Amino acid sequence: MRSILIAAAVGLIVSILLTPLAIRAFRRQGLGQEIRDDGPESHLSKKGTPTMGGTVIVGATVIGYLAAHLAFVGESGWGFTATGLLLLFLMVGMGTVGFLDDYLKIRHRRSLGLNKTAKLVGQLVVGVAFAVLALQFPSNGITPASTVVSYVRDIAPLALGPVAFVILAYLFIAGFSNAVNLTDGLDGLAAGSSAMVLASYIFISFWQFTHDCANELIDGCYTVRDPLDVTLVAAAGMGACLGFLWWNTSPARIFMGDTGSLALGGLIAGMAIVTRTELLLVVTGGLFVAVTLSVVIQVAFFRATRRRVFRMAPLHHHFELAGWTENTVIVRFWLVTGMAVAFGLGLFYADWLGFVGL
Predict the structure, then answer these.
(1) Total structural domains in the chain?
(2) pTM of the full predicted structure?
(3) Which of 33, 123, 165, 250 would bridge with 174, disulfide CB 3.0–4.6 Å?
């Protein structure tokens, strides 16, 4: 438990202290956000706000994870694991794709960075590499990922071959990284929502650690690899998001940019894969799903009828144009995320109660 607190605390402290340094450095370099011309008029005043703050989130997460391990170096049975390092690889890799996107936006002074093909290729390389590596490094016969589709645990009838798993994992990772990216349109919305989803994975992975089949074969135990290390990554990521949120709340002094949103989306998807809770993430990450669906519905309906379902997509901009203030949209969407996370954790716990007969 102490290691989890250290990971979260260090992630928080590093993020909250480094973010203002990043704000000053990015401002000196002229690394300011470009704003969509067709967006809400109230957002035009945000033009020039420093972006690429996701570099701080990624760095603070890595430092928090490392600090938790260094604090207990030398203790027996304690060390870095394949699962923890793979999650950090996924986060850093997706963050690098986002960094390139942010850099091109700033360099060309427009709100669009990498073209769709380049962005998808970057996500493809990182996502496929993670998926392939996650099927390696067995420990007691258990690899970081499973080729079986999961909900709260693996669903045996939905077993996939390695190739099908890699394809599905890539689509899952790319989908959620883009979903968090779409959600990152209001001050603090993506950071606050991501912190809550990561908090749910602290609970899930720690519960799996205390009910690990590798330690004791009991009813409802979980067949996962390195659940405690997953908890450390989740705790460090949550702390990093909260520290960044201190400076990112309205009016934001810095934006995470695609660097942060792609990194967080990739990390959250990776968490779901290694904890065998892929379909459960559709519930706990319900806000990200809803925002993405709003874009899909808007585009599909407009192409079919030349009419729009929403005033503007993604969904949060629809409510802004409907008259809600930005802060109202943010707080209410945070509440939606909180309810989705609570409901998802309820489903997770209910599954365990079903095994123990309570």
Answers:
(1) 1
(2) 0.93
(3) 123
